[in-house]
Structures are given as structure tokens and as C-alpha cells.
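Hi C.,

You asked whether I'd gotten around to modeling the 143-residue construct. I have! Everything is below, sequence then structure, no commentary in between.
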Amino acid sequence: MYGRLAVAGTAVDITSLGLQVCGEIVSFWFCQAWRGFNEDIQNIGQKANGLRMPLRYLRQLIEDFRTTDPMIASDLEEKAKSIEQAIKRLKAATDRYSSTASDQDSLWFQLKKAAYPFRKEGLCDMASDLDSVQRVLDTALLM
């Protein structure tokens, strides 16, 4: 249901799923099908793009601290696990919306694009989830 990494049991798996989801958001909404279509969608793409480096850095920190300072690694893992539900909701949204653009050249796709298939509240939910991931990453990386 949530894709290849959905059964994210460890903090490293969660950060990897986050990276995958952010990449899907950036490539689908920001760079491809909906580029320039709506400011809200571009904002979500920019937020997702901005999370990629901190997610990579958090994943690397967890791996590095596992051997040098397990207490710090444990704390970082707990912070990473706290974003799991937000990441899974984002993954579900990317799966749902990406099916909309499976055939971008078709007349049906052009009609759907014209009808703007994204609900404002759906975009607000995604933006909120991205913001909550950002807050956790900010906290974790400030340590």
C-alpha cells in the first residue's frame, strides 16, 4: 500500500522512505506534470526539496552515532520515528496523485489538469505534514 519501503521499522528506513517520498513530490509536482500550474503545488515541491538534504544528513548521523555514541543515536532514532506517520501520509498522497498523471499526453489527463484534481485541503494537509517533518528534522539536527 505504501510502496517498497512502507514497512519502515527503523529510523534509517523511515528517513529513506522520506527521501523517496520527497523525491516523488519534487519530480512529480515541482518538476513535471504540474509545474507552473499552481503556486500551492510549487510550494509543496519546494518544501519537499528542502527536506531532502536534512533527511540524508539525519540518516547519516544515526548510522555514524550507532557505533560512537549509542545514546545520541537512540535519541535521533526516536525523532526520526516521530515523523513516520507524516511520511506515510505523504506517500499515500503521492501514490494517489501520481495515478492522475500516468498518461500525461492523453486528452483525459489534460481535462483532469484543467479540472485541478487537488483539493485545497489536501494540499494544506501535505504542506502541514512537510512542515512537521521539517520541525522534527530541525530539532534533531540542532542537537
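If it helps when you're writing up: DSSP finds six helices and no strands in the chain.

Thanks,
B.
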